[in-house]
Amino acid sequence: MNWDQIEGNWKQFKGNAKQQWGKLTDNQLDIIAGKRDQLAGTIQELYGVTKYDAEQQLNEWEALQKSGSCCCNKDASTPTKGCS
Q1: Whole-model pTM?
Q2: Which residues form the CsbD-like domain (predicted)?
Q3: Phi and psi torsions of 36, nearest 5°
Q4: pLDDT tens digit string along 28-42?
């Protein structure tokens, strides 16, 4: 799986993104529409992190999507595996 697949199936992935980054609104997720750069910028803005940190969070989240694991860390620091 690559980011193009996430973007192409955004409706399936946006719930996971909202679970990972709880400050994202449904409207923001609809506007982002799976665009990685836009998601990274919104994470930067909402959480006050650097571009590097936002990209790291996205890389970790993307890896979890590929592995089929769930991320449920509500503070968006480091994704965690296995939702309870």
Answers
A1: 0.77
A2: 4-55
A3: -60, -50
A4: 999 999 999 999 999
Residue found under tokens 């480091």: 78
Q: Which amino acid is at 49?
A: V
In angstroms, rounded to a whole number, what is the distance separating the alpha carbons of residues 66 and 47?
24
Match 């296995």 to its residue by tokens: 82
Domains of the chain: 3-67 (1.10.1470.10)
Tokens 């996430």 map to which residue?
6
The C-alpha angle 72, 69, 10, rounded to 5 degrees, equals 80
Residue pLDDT, tens place only, 24-79: 999 999 999 999 999 999 999 999 999 999 999 999 999 999 887 655 444 444 44
